[in-house]
Amino acid sequence: xxxxxxHIVLFCKDTNLSKGWYEKVGFELVRGYEEMYWFNLxxxxxxxxxxxxxxxxxxxxxxxxxxVSQVFQHVIDQGLEPVDHQQPGxxxxxPVTRPWGDVEFELVDPDGHLWAFTENRT
Length: 122
Known about the structure:
Elements: E1 7-12, H1 15-25, E2 28-33, E3 36-41, E4 44-50, E5 60-64, H2 68-77, E6 96-97, E7 102-108, E8 114-120
Parallel strand pairs: 1-4, 5-8
Antiparallel strand pairs: 2-3, 3-4, 6-7, 7-8
């Protein structure tokens, strides 16, 4: 019956600002229409939709990656600041190994959506 997600909608106060952020992270822009933007993420689309209100801290998305260290270096090179949600306010120098075996880091987009980039090493 279900085939999977068609797309996920993230509400943004400034979709043009958010578009630039997503491009820096390395998401592939698929299309745009009237300040709405769709990005490809492994066969699923992430849609940035204009809104007067966003939900900071309410959305937590995990992206599976093959080499978390490579992704970490890419975002550093783009001038973005990786975080560890378990150590708010502290800078991290590399991906963090979780007790359950995943190795990951997070980024917070301009609207407060938390993106975890996770390599499963279990």
